[in-house]
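Please decode residue identities from the backbone states below.
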């Protein structure tokens, strides 16, 4: 009998009332009997029962022998009997489909949640320039999820202020900070790691890495020790982002020996710590980053995630780490269907990106949130990345309502074609100064000098002797300013806004159309994330029912967005 059995004199039937078994007219999973008020007909009842993920769903068939004309319905409680040889008694209803309750904390990998102190396997990824704000991190942490502060591109004093705030407001609750690969500014990466180690930041999201670096390895192995049980303990954890197998392989492997020996020589770690570091991966957790906003290789998630999972299993067999490697999914996670698919494919967790940028806590402007909320899947383009401009690396951005992608692309064409600012044809220079920069090259270079003398003086020193590098820094000035203009909502620069955005944003907008999440003023990271998780659980139950051959009406196969109160009601305990 079901633990949800409800005792009542008003029953539709059951073995005690039977005069004898009635052979069902079709194969069934079991038999149901219970109170007549627990039987709910219609597609709406089925949809809401599936969404009520804390309760079981019993799809009931009609019994044309015992009760001719009885229509299919749904029940969420009652007495049940399951078995391959179940018999229906007079008044019983056949169970033709069954979906068990699905707790949100059963989505993903429990080891991931345990390792990071989470209730739910959902991460708000770092969005650079503080778009992944302290407010985002706090909201996610209070809801039992993980938020990563978007430290990339910010001055160290701003990052330090965020560390102080989050340490104070969250205490021992989980949070993380971004550590971005800075191949053109290695001193900046060193400075960020110094800051994190000094303030005891215990989790970083390593993003945009094409190769491992000494600062990253220094962060990972700092303070490593063996406890009294013989386990290697690493106080500092890394969640890596990768879209290429060769990069993921480096993260899943132990730190390179050359880096360990250099850290020993520098006095950052001991020989004993170097030996311990050979027993751990650089990153225990890796996010398979598919077609995403910002830095991306535009990889399809359906191909990338299984590839990274297979790589994880191969490397785990090779090194036999005591704590198993884990793979999460990002890029395109913007609807319940996408989240359900990621978990079904074996994702340890899901990481949300550009959809959070359209939420009220994000460190960007209302104008940007409005633009994102109006976007569709085709409203995106690739444009040069400010931090890796000379390397030809691109980022995915919003195309609708802005000319940034076109103007940034033109700057890269000029960089490839000429070796200095002086070589650029006069008419082209004038067009840049009047339309794009809105100031002379001399004024731009003065801004560049001021900026890099504080951030990384070696860049300006190199520019003094390398005219092509000087030109690159001038172009990077524009690329960097465009994201600042967007974040502050500078009205005179709307056409220059650089807004990191992937096709997932359009998918979310289509799903949210006409709902409580359509307006950007009503989007917050927790309501959004909980909708995706609850929706993923509901759609998993849809999949179970369909796999049992239950034909479901279209309305029952869709999870509609819910506001915070409606979500709380779905998740409330009886």
């Amino acid at each position: 009998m079901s633990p949800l059995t409800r005792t009542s004199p008003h029953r539709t039937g059951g073995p005690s009332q039977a005069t004898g078994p009635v052979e069902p007219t079709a194969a069934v999973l079991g038999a149901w009997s219970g109170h007549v008020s627990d039987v709910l007909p219609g597609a709406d009842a089925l949809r809401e029962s599936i969404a009520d993920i804390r309760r079981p769903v019993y799809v009931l068939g009609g019994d044309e022998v015992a009760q001719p004309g009885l229509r299919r319905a749904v029940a969420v409680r009652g007495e049940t009997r399951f078995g391959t040889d179940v018999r229906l008694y007079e008044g019983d209803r056949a169970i033709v489909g069954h979906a068990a309750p699905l707790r949100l904390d059963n989505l993903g990998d429990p080891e991931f949640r345990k390792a990071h102190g989470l209730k739910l396997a959902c991460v708000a990824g770092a969005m650079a320039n503080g778009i992944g704000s302290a407010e985002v991190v706090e909201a996610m942490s209070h809801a039992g999820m993980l938020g990563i502060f978007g430290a990339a591109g910010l001055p160290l004093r701003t990052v330090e202020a965020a560390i102080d705030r989050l340490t104070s407001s969250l205490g021992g609750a989980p949070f993380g900070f971004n550590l971005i690969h800075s191949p053109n500014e290695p001193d900046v990466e060193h400075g960020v790691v110094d800051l994190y180690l000094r303030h005891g930041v215990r989790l970083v999201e390593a993003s945009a890495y094409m190769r491992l670096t000494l600062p990253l390895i220094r962060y990972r192995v700092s303070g490593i020790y063996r406890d009294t049980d013989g386990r290697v303990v690493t106080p500092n954890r890394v969640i890596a982002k990768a879209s290429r197998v060769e990069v993921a392989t480096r993260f899943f492997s132990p730190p390179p020996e050359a880096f360990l020996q250099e850290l020993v020589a520098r006095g950052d770690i001991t020989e004993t710590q170097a030996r311990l570091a050979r027993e751990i991966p650089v990153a225990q957790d890796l996010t398979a980053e598919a077609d995403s906003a910002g830095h991306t290789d535009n990889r399809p998630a359906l191909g990338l995630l299984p590839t990274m999972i297979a790589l994880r299993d191969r490397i785990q067999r090779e090194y036999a780490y005591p704590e198993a490697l884990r793979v999460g999914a990002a890029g395109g996670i913007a609807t319940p269907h996408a989240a359900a698919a990621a978990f079904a494919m074996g994702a340890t967790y899901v990481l949300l990106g550009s959809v959070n940028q359209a939420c009220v806590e994000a460190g960007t402007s209302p104008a940007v949130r409005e633009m994102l909320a109006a976007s569709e899947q085709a409203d995106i383009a690739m444009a040069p990345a400010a931090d890796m401009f000379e390397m030809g690396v691109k980022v995915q951005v919003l195309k609708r309502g802005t000319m940034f992608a076109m103007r940034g692309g033109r700057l890269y064409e000029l960089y490839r074609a000429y070796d200095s600012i002086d070589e650029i044809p006069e008419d082209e220079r004038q067009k840049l100064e009047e339309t794009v920069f809105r100031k002379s090259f001399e004024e731009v270079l003065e801004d560049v000098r001021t900026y890099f003398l504080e951030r990384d003086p070696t860049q300006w020193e190199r520019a003094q002797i390398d005219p092509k590098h000087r030109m690159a820094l001038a172009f990077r000035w524009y690329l960097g300013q465009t994201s600042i203009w967007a974040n502050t909502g500078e009205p005179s620069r709307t056409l220059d806004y650089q807004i990191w955005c992937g096709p997932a944003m359009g998918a979310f907008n289509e799903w949210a159309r006409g709902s409580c999440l359509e307006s950007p003023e009503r989007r917050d990271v927790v309501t959004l994330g909980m909708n995706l998780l609850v929706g993923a659980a509901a759609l998993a139950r849809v999949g179970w029912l369909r796999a049992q051959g239950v034909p479901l009406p279209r309305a029952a196969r869709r999870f509609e967005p819910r506001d915070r109160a409606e979500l709380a009601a779905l998740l409330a305990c009886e």
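Observation: Residues 1-26, 63-70 have pLDDT under 50 and may be disordered.
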